[in-house]
Design brief:
Blueprint: H1 4-14, H2 18-53, H3 58-69, H4 79-84, H5 86-102, H6 106-143, H7 146-160, H8 165-174, H9 180-210, H10 218-249, H11 253-274, H12 278-292, H13 294-307, H14 309-322, H15 330-357, H16 362-367, H17 377-389, H18 394-423, H19 433-439, H20 442-445, E1 453-454, H21 459-466, E2 473-477, E3 483-488, H22 489-492, H23 507-510, E4 517-519, H24 524-533, E5 538-542, E6 550-555, H25 556-577
Amino acid sequence: MVSYGTALLFARESRLSHNEVVLDLLTHIHAPVLLLIGLAIFFGTMGARIFQWLRIPQVVGYIVIGLLVGRSGLKLLNQQTIASLQPFNFFALGVIGFMIGGELHRDVFKKYGKQFMVVLLSEGLGAFFVVGVTTALIALVATGDAKLAVALGMVLGAISSATAPAATVDVLWEYKSRGPLTTTVFAIVALDDGLALILYAVAASFAAGLVGQGGHSIWHSLAVSGYEIVGAVALGVVAGVLLNATLRWSREPDKALTFIIGTLAGILGVAIVAKVDLILAAMALGVTIGNLAPRRSRASFDIIERFAPPIYVLFFVVVGARLNVSGMPAWMAVLAVAYVIGRSAGKMGGAYLGARWSKTTDVVRKYLGLCLFSQAGVAIGLAILASIRFPAPMGDAIIIIVTTTTFLVQIIGPPSVKVAIQKAGEVGLNITEEDLIRQYRASDLMDPEAPTFKAGTPLAEILATIATTDATAYPVVDGEDKLLGMITLSDLKTLFSMEGLGGWLVAYDLMRSVPDLVTADTAAEEVMTRMKEQQLDYLVVVESLESQRCVGMVEGAAVSRRLSHEVIRRRRLAEEAA
């Protein structure tokens, strides 16, 4: 690394300007980081594709690539590089929080708010008590110190109540899920941070008294947590009101992205300076925008959704790179195993009981617990606070256990979410027309029963057929259904000037050459692109380019109706399930 003083000395000898030195120094400093960022995004995406091919959620691929290049693997991303990417991690968490907030609609909370709160308290407190009791007993056997064991169990129990939204929500977005389970998951992971902060404030105060590390009363700790939560929500709401007014004034899509990113980055910076929860602030911003203007804001969230994929990739690669799974003492390894088992049992059992008490649907009762395994940002943040506040071995044990178990639950969490939404029947119910086009082939868009005319079909029969259909173009074929040409409604208009000839004309006389054609297995995206580029309302679908046997027609208006009906059908299924 080139120091600033060395660079200035070299400048004097080489007669370089001060600005040239600064530019040269910055280039030396940032080039390796930029290279690593590029490689992380590229190989993270490749890893995700491999895991998708194995039918494993893509987020697991990101994290595994991070493990390979990070502290537990090749160490290409070292601690210094990871620390330099911290502002980017904050921004990525802000984007994720903003998108989660956009899913929390006012009418949903009016209808299900009480259920959400019951489930939240049940699963959060369930993890708190199960982890707390289990780890306290193991720590008592290992250390023989009852006060230390109880203090350690309380803090670990509080931290275990947090659920990481990022990996969970990424799976829901990847598989386009929609329904009562998905709605409940969005609400729970959005509210879990607040509950974890409150539980930690109470537990840390009691634990500090037990191990002789007092200094702040429980009321002071609760006040700090309250400030972090209320301050974050207030910040997000105020920023959301201002952003909504700005977007209403400026309706240009390219300007909208600039305003949204600028506002989001701004409130994240204010949240860090003001020491309030930045994820909650971003969520509050998303909730405010999504509820003040539900229809107009949809475009804003779509813009961020298209902008965000590289951010998600790099974020999860860095998450994997940061994890260090080596060097753990034996008794801490036992505690870590107990922590994972106890947290999973507490989350699943608490979620089931809370869903049963609040009388939610069967799919929520059965599968919600599977969606709450992931743990990351808030849990690690609280563990760092605990490691600073409490002396060894308690402080060391907390940070080692939480960071190590984060690796495990981040790997098993996403596949568990996938299993849950599959069993709940909610995969693919939040799909858009663009998603369908990406999935479909020409055979899915075409009308295989589209009317065709033989070359010798008389005009009277052609007009009688056209009067009973909605099509605007008709293929003309020979006796073996081989494509010869096309007849369009615009071509038929010329007949009005041909007095006396109508009785003599047949399809062969009226047809024109075919402008373009596709095969049944052509990607739907290519079909739509060809129609747009050539300004066509239709395309003929043939069995193969060699045989040119007509098997159907793709018409723009019919495709729009078909896609719209399919989207509505899937969303109705989700609403009926709810």
